[in-house]
Amino acid sequence: GTLFLDEVGDIPLPLQVKLLRLIETRAFRRVGSTEPRKSDFRLICATHRDLGRMVEDGTFRRDLFHRLSAFPIRLPPLRERREDVPLLIESAARRLGCGNLSRFHPDTLAALDAYPFPGNVRELQNVIGRRGLLAGEGSVLPEHLPDEVLAAAGGGAAQARPSEIVTLAEAERRYLRWALATFKGDRRELAR
Predict the structure, then answer these.
(1) What whole-number distance in Å separates Cα of residue 128 and Cα of residue 78?
(2) CA 135, CA 87: separation in Å to the nearest integer?
(3) pLDDT digits (tens, 9 = 90+) for 12-69
(4) pTM beyond 0.85
(5) What are the residues facing 36 on neighbouring strands?
(6) Are strands 27-29 and 36-38 parallel, antiparallel or unpaired?
(7) Which H helix or E strand runs over 84?
(8) What's the CA gap between 116 and 82, in Å, rounded?
(9) What angle is formed at CA 186 by the lines to CA 182 and CA 192, rounded to 5 degrees?
(10) pLDDT tens sequence across 144-161
(11) What are the helix (H) ranges across the chain?
(12) Which residues of 175-188 are buried (b: 16+ CB within 10 A; e: fewer)?
């Protein structure tokens, strides 16, 4: 089978020794057992840490590093692959039931494209999911985005707002939805 170890860079040194032994011997003991068992598995590891630097710092075993780095694949952060943002938005929107890319206002897409997403794809998925809920059945507008995304779009919320002319009723509805989403008190205080 396949053994996937996520965040292998967070494994403490004492456990790294045990992991190295498992990889080298392909043998392990079940908890509470004294009999060794053999295993045949493909090992896949992931980490957000620089394991090479950790080896130099003495916080990751060099021998384990060389065992794990037989075929390294570097996946660059989202900020280094901006061309993937529209595809990931489309995928997340469909998967989370928020429609498709056409549901996102062009100003919303521009704001999302300008944001560096320090939380990578997980952060993008969270933003899409929450904003799809706030938009309801309508278009996902820039006002549905978090303030930090709008700020990255160049000058904050005022510049990232749609430039289309809307009816007063629509403007009021958008304002009230924005006020409800951003006000930290309860609804009674907001109404006052």
Answers:
(1) 15
(2) 20
(3) 999 999 999 999 999 999 999 999 999 999 999 999 899 999 999 999 999 999 999 9
(4) no
(5) 29
(6) antiparallel
(7) none
(8) 9
(9) 90
(10) 888 888 888 765 444 444
(11) 13-25, 51-57, 62-68, 85-95, 106-114, 120-135, 147-152, 157-160, 168-182, 187-191
(12) eebbeeeeeeeeee
DSSP for 64-83 reads HHHHHTTS------GGG-GG
What is the four-CA torsion angle of 51, 52, 53, 57, rounded to 10 degrees? 90
**What tokens does 76 get?**
């660059």
Residues written for the chain? 192
Query: Where do we find the tokens 């939380």?
Result: 119
Helix (H) or strand (E) run with residue 29 in it = strand 27-29
| Residue from 136, 158, 157 nearest 147 by CA | 157
Distance, in Å, from the CA atom of 189 to the CA atom of 131, rounded to the nearest integer, reads 24
Q: How far apart are the first and last CA of the chain?
A: 61
Give the burial class of 33: count Cβ atoms within 10 A of its Cβ; 0-12 exposed, 13-18 middle, 19 or more buried: exposed
29 CA to centre of own chain: 36
Provide the sign of the torsion angle of the four alpha carbons 36, 42, 44, 50, taken in this order: positive
Tell me the Ramachandran region of residue 44: left when phi exceeds 0, alpha when psi lies from -120 to 50, beta otherwise: beta
